[in-house]
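Look over both lines:
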Amino acid sequence: MQEKNHLQNDTLSSLSGVIIYSIDAGYRYTAFTDSHRQVMKVLWGADIAVGQNFLDYIHREDDKKKEQGNFDKALRGESLVEDGEYGDETGHTRSWWESRYSPIYDEKDKIIGVTVFVIDITQRKQVEHALRASEIDYRFIMDQAADGIFIADQTGRYLDVNRAGCEMLGYRRDEILELSMPDLVVVSEENPIRLADLLEGKTLLSQRDLKRKDGRLVPVEISAKMMEDGRLIGVVRDIAERKREDARVLFLAFVMNKISSAVISTDTEMKITYWNKSAEILYGWRELEVLGRQVDEVCGTEFAEGQQEIAYRILLVEKTWRGELKQRHRTGREIWVDASMTLLEDDNKNHVGSVTINHDVTERKLAEDELRRTKETIEQINLTLRRAFEREQLASRTDSLTGVFNRRYFFELLGYEFAASRRYERPLSLVMFDVDFLKKINDTYGHQVGDELLKKAAEVVRGELRTSDVLARYGGDEFVILLSSSDERDASLLLERIYREIQSAYIRVDERKLGIAISAGIASLQPEMEKVDQLVMQADRALYAAKNSGRNRMVVFNNDEDGK
């Protein structure tokens, strides 16, 4: 069985200077290195993107058929190495490339795509062609090459080296021609010099350390093969800087896959270009399944009303936005994330994509929702208890029949007002009245009619009072009115208004209208009064006098006439 190939394999990722890309079974990109993006721009003028068909970018039909054929072989399970010349129709950008095609397998050993490793062998081809053409062309190309070019015989002894190779290792050309491969190449049991493979016609790509003349080691990448005339050629590239960059990138990739938050990068169209391990765990989708798809579609983002528009405006100005989003797991399960999104720009301030770090806050949100529901329940219970308490309080101080205050609460208020009026020397009056002939009405029409008459009388009187006045049922058919900051004249004027309203008030008994009449007595606070009972007694005597003088009238208490 073929060994499984994965684009994120550490060994493959460390091959600096090599173009790497992967496609799915429909020839669509699933990933690619930045070096591949740049080459496709040069060769075909194409701005490639994850999810797009690779073959659509190739303009020459012969090149397209050649690539499709190689892809199809790999999709059938074959691993192959092919040399090929590619570029646009003009020929100005055509160059030589060595491509290695390897199938990608899923967890069930099914082929789901192809990984391609590509190296630029244009310089090597130029040297080979120059060797066949003329010594002048050969020497010119050798010395113009940016990479080191070493030519050796089949025993490994060097026959030629260009200027870049000499400068890389600190030797003169004549000094290198006295050496062989073991003198310059660091050899180990795991990485021997594979002369036999080269003599069999294989093309070798490897990373090694070469020995400089001063003893230092130079990390290089070597592409080597045997030429048509039997000599061996190696194109050597110094990758010291790139190895440091690779190490940094690998470390960042390691960190991205170790952190607990989901890290997602997207292109300018919000299509996913990177999806770390935590994102796979959080959303249930593997990276290969989501690359090239719209991020909000994959994550099932549900924006609150106006949230998306506000986030967009903030991003345009501040280049970053943070907020909580409701999303969905692959199974449909609800997820809440604390999302932090940053726009990515190139050196020219052009938008090239974005990166979002999403931290799972589902448990916190569920706890907050439960806490809110508990709080709402407690508040509802408290409201019910408060209303019950208020009703109980109201019931304890009001008369159940008429709805006015009862006798007990009246005396509580009277005690307070009596003491305050004496202390601050302000007037205070008390009106006591009853409904005339209530006993006769009860005997004639029944107590229910009598009760209706009491309620109507209380309703009319209450309609004429100030908010500061207190109306209470004193007992039976008797009521009292407590008038703070009011003297005898104020009380008399009030009673006059009440009498006018009472005269037009009535209740219906069958088809008859039954009118209402009241008798009232008024008493006001006097300087010599020390007890509440004195004021109540005077109001009671004035009421008694009103009833004795014919009812349906009011009397103001007078000490000289004893209320008459």
About this structure: The mean pLDDT is 85.
